[in-house]
Amino acid sequence: MRTTITAWRLRRGMTLVSAASVLLLTACSAAAGGSGDGDGPAAAPNKDDKISLVVYSKFTNREYPVVSAGLNRLKAKFPNIEIKHEGSQDDDKLTQSIRGGNPPDVAISFFTDNLGAWCSNGSFVDLKPYIDRDKVDLNVIPEAVRSYTEFRGKRCAMPMLADVYGFFYNKDMFAAAGLSAPPKNTTELFDHAKRLTQLNPDGSIRVAGFLPTMPFYNNQAQIWAPNWDARWLGPDGKSNLAASAEWKEMFTFQKKLIDFYGHDRLAKFKAGLGDEYSEDHAFHRGKIAMMFDGEYRTAFLKEQAPNVKYGTASPPVSDSKPNRYGGAFTTGTIIAIPKGAKNPGAAWELIKQMSLDTDTLVELGNGLKNVPSTMAALRDPRLEVDENYRPFLTMFDGGKLLPNPTTPIGDAHLKAVNDFAERWQAGREPDLEAGLRKVDAQINDELAQKGGGR
Questions:
Q1: Which PANTHER family match (predicted)?
Q2: In terms of domains, do 159 and 33 share one?
């Protein structure tokens, strides 16, 4: 969802993962053989089997031992299985391992962006035979989460916690500006941004009430889009941005905020802000008063900026879409069996535990401050919930979450729109509809080459 995730990651620095390396697997994935790649599921290990399971993930620092502890809970059922958890493994490294015929047994990715490519080219094993054999009820997972972990009905991954992207605001700054509640719509967001913004004597920005620059921090098109009910694909599976009133309204509002601050002034201000996952994050340092971010930010604030008094809420929505309030963008960490895994039967047992076991999900949720991806874990009384974490659980349970569509082109559609946003906010795309038509054409060309979306 990241999970502590979730999309340029979308938490982990929100760096666009290269879809090209994933798509290259289409031509060579058949070279990576191994048991469990056929139609039938590989047998579960015996209790006393001695097996070493290699797990790739991108977890590091404080999160790595939390995830390792969750993985090692498998020993309660299979005491002789050794878990070799290799952190700092991004999607490109995973792709290279599969191409080279030496994949891990279990792959954990912060990103859902490449799932369509992995499912369609066979890089991840189809889990349906395992699900059917073990009579797994997928309805324990919310529909939006089920959606972003499958592609065209093919389930080649399971969720391992979820990310929900809400709204953070600085309570001290709100009080100083005479504001008592977070904004619920775009009119209020714009008004709050103006009232909370502070300038230096030379006119430069000292504090931005709300920073609208894309893509920066979690100002990503895919995170904003659900607040306008903006959809990526039309009923025909093609990109439909230029014909969408919602996308136009979203970008018009973003440009209104850009123009309020001034593009060049924003660029200078942004250049002086800290890294997204460091203690120098702008919200930690009181440089921005409001922002979109995931539930995992509560853990970063507790550790890196414990003196900041803040609140969380559902993100403000378009004035024209009041019923969207209480909804949000969702994504999450996914867990899968790569093609060619040496121990697919044991890998599946680990995946079931990490995606469905309530005890494990509660432990991970408490340690990572991500949202558990089953309803049982979400409602478990052992889940540690404070006033700033609760709104994310409420959104997750509210039935209004919207994920990205899974497509065979990786994150290419996300990159195309965020690249457009950079040009739009800088004034290099003066005609919004014409610019979006070009983005549609770019995305549809790539979809046509790879066989469409979903």
A1: ARABINOSE-BINDING PROTEIN-RELATED, BINDING PROTEIN COMPONENT OF ABC SUGAR TRANSPORTER-RELATED
A2: yes
Helix axes 432-450, 412-425, angle to 10 degrees: 160
Task: Report in angstroms the alpha-carbon separations of 208 from 55, 201, 286, 410.
Answer: 42, 15, 9, 33
Structure tokens given for 104: 């891990």
pLDDT at 36 over 90: no
The string of pLDDT tens digits covering residues 254-291 is 999 999 999 999 999 999 999 998 999 999 999 999 99
**Rounded-to-integer distance, Cα 412 and Cα 4, Å:** 22
Angle, helices 344-356 vs 358-368, to 10°: value is: 70
Is 70 exceeded by the pLDDT of residue 228?
yes
CATH of the domain at 28: 3.40.190.10
Question: 151 and 200, same structural domain?
Answer: no
- Residue-wise pLDDT for 329-345, tens only, equals 999 999 999 999 999 99
Beta-ladder partners of 210: 290
Pair (257, 375) in one structural domain: no
| Domain final position from 368, 386, 402 | 402
> Does residue 79 have a pLDDT over 80?
yes
**Do 215 and 14 contact (CB within 8 A), yes or no?**
yes
- Domain with 302, as residue range(s), is 165-329
Same domain, yes or no, for 285 and 362?
A: no
Q: What is the mean pLDDT of residues 154-179?
A: 96
3-class SS shares of the chain: helix, strand, coil, % to 5 = 40, 15, 40
Beta pairing, strands 205-210 & 198-199: antiparallel
What pLDDT was estimated at residue 153? Answer: 86
* Locus of tokens 């939390």: 66
pTM of the full structure: 0.86
Question: What Å distances lie between residue 332 and 344, 434, 435, CA to CA?
Answer: 23, 33, 30
Quote the CA–CA distance of 334 and 117 in Å, as a whole number.
14
Place of tokens 């809420």: 313
Q: Percent of the chain, pLDDT > 90?
A: 77
Shared domain for 254 and 383, answered yes or no, is: no
Cis peptide preceding 215, ω within 30 of 0: yes
Contact 19/114 with Cβ under 8 angstroms?
yes
Residue 445: is its pLDDT beyond 50? yes
DSSP state of 235: T
Residues 226 and 263 in one domain: yes
Task: Give me the chain's average pLDDT, please.
Answer: 90
Nearest alpha carbon to residue 256 among 203, 193, 201, 303? 193
Record the tokens describing residue 380, joined without a space: 């478990």
Go through the chain and tell me how many residues it has.
454
